Amino acid sequence: MPLNFFNFIGFPLSFPLLLFLQATLLSDGSIVKTLPGFPGVLPFKLETGYVRVEESELFYYFVESQGRAPFDPLILYLNGGPSCSGLNGFLYQAGPLVFNITDYTGGLPALSLNPNSWTKTASIIFVDAPIGTGFSYATTPQGYSVSDTKSARQTHNFIREWLINHPEFIKNEFFIASDAYSGIVTPVIAEEILNGNEIGAEPRINLKGFLSGSPHTDKLQEDNSIIPYSYQMALISDHLYQSARISCNEQYVIVDPSNAKCLTDLEAIYECIGQIDFANILEPRCDINLVPEEKDGQQARRSLKENQTYNFNSSVQKTDKKFWCRNFVYALSNIWANDRSVQNALHVRQGTIREWVRCNESIIQQTYLYDIRSAIVYQKNLTNTGLQVLLYNGDHDLGLPHISTQKWIKSLNLSKQSEWRPWFVDGQIAGYTVKYSNQGYHLTYVTVKGAGHSPTEYKSKECYSMFERWIHYYPL
C-alpha cells in the first residue's frame, strides 16, 4: 500500500513515517564522536538532536566549552537569512571546525580545527531556526508558516526546553548571539525571555545579554544608508552624491515615480555600484543578479541591495586563486551535509527533509512573513533591563552599512561611557569601538576593520579576540 506524501516548500514528507518518528524518537541529543572528513575522534564534545516546539522539530548542534564548561557562558547562536542553517555558524563563523579548501580536489570535503572557535571559551548551541532551515522540519504543513514574531517565540521556547534536558547549564550565564538577519529577532527573544522569567516560567533563564554581528534592525534605514556609505567609500562621485541627496531629499528607497531627477540619479548610482559585491566591497562579485525592485502601483521602490542567488556547482574539483569566489567555500557545505554518512553521524532523522541547503530560499519566497520591519523599539525597551549588549559591523559591508547601525544606536539616547577609539589585536588596529550605558545597561559598539557582512567570516582571529574579551567582561 503506497504511503501518502505531501509536498510543502520543497520538502516531501511521509506523514505516516513522520508520526512513527515522533512516537519513537526522543527529543534529547546524541553525542557525536567522529565526523566524516575529520581525522580521528573529535577533540571537543559535540551533541546533536531535536527539540520539539509547537508543530516543529528544531535541530541543533551543541558544542561544550573547551575551557571551563561548568562556569563558561552558554550561547544560543542564531544565523541570518532568515533561512540559513546553524551549520553555517558552526562551519563558517564561530564553530570549532572549518573546511580545508587548500587541498580540495573533489569528493567529500575535509574538515580541520578552527583555531579561533568561540567554543574555546563558551558553550554554544547552533540551532536550525526558523522551521524549514537546515535539518529542522514541521510535523504539519501549517507548521512551515512562520514569521519574525513566531520565530522569536519558538526560539524562546526552544531554549527553555533545551535547558530542561540539560539542567547542568541552567545556572550558567546565558547570552544570545546572532548574525545578520537574526539581529531583528534577537531583542524580541531577549524581551520574551525576561517576560517569561518575570511570570515564573521554568526553568529560569540566566540571561545576561546578547551580541549581534551585522545586526539587521531596521530595513528602511539600512537600505537608505547604502548611498551615503557608497559616497564615503569613494564608490560614487561627490557631484553625483550631492545631486541625489538633493533630488531624492535623502530618501533613496521609496521614490515617487514622478520624481524624474531622483530616478535618473539613482540609475547613475546603480551603474557605479551595481557590479560590486555587497557583502564585501573588496571581494569579487560572483553568481549574483542585481535587480531594482518595484512594489505598489503608487510608489516605485528602487532597492540598490542585491537579490542574491547562489548557484552552487557540486562538480567543482578544485579552487583556483585566479577565479576564487567565496561562494565556492559555501558550496562545500552542500556537498558535505547531503552526504548520507554525514547525516548518519549527526543523527539526522532520515526522510524528514529532501535536501539540505545552507540557506533555504523557499522559506523566504513562499512561507516567511516579515512582520517586524524595525526592531528599534525592542532595543529601546531593553535599555532599562541591565543587559550587556555587543553590536559589531564589518566596515566594508555595503548591504548593511555600519553607518545605519550607528544611526539607530544614537536614537536610543544613551549616555556615552567611553569615546570612539581604536581597539587592537596583536598590536594592530582591528577596528574602532565606543561604549554607551544607561544605569546597569551597557552597549558596546564595534567596527571590524576590513570585514564584510558577517564579520566572523572575514576576520576570524579579530572577532574571536573581541568575543573573548567582551563575554568575560574585559574591555576591548
TrEMBL record:
The keyword S-adenosyl-L-methionine does not apply. Coiled coil: none annotated. Gene3D superfamilies: 3.40.50.12670, alpha/beta hydrolase (3.40.50.1820). InterPro entries: AB_hydrolase_fold, Peptidase_S10. It comes from the Eukaryota. Keywords: Signal. Pfam families: Peptidase_S10 (PF00450). SUPFAM superfamilies: alpha/beta-Hydrolases (SSF53474). Residues 1-29 form the signal peptide. Belongs to the peptidase S10 family. This is Serine carboxypeptidase-like 18. It comes from Ziziphus jujuba.
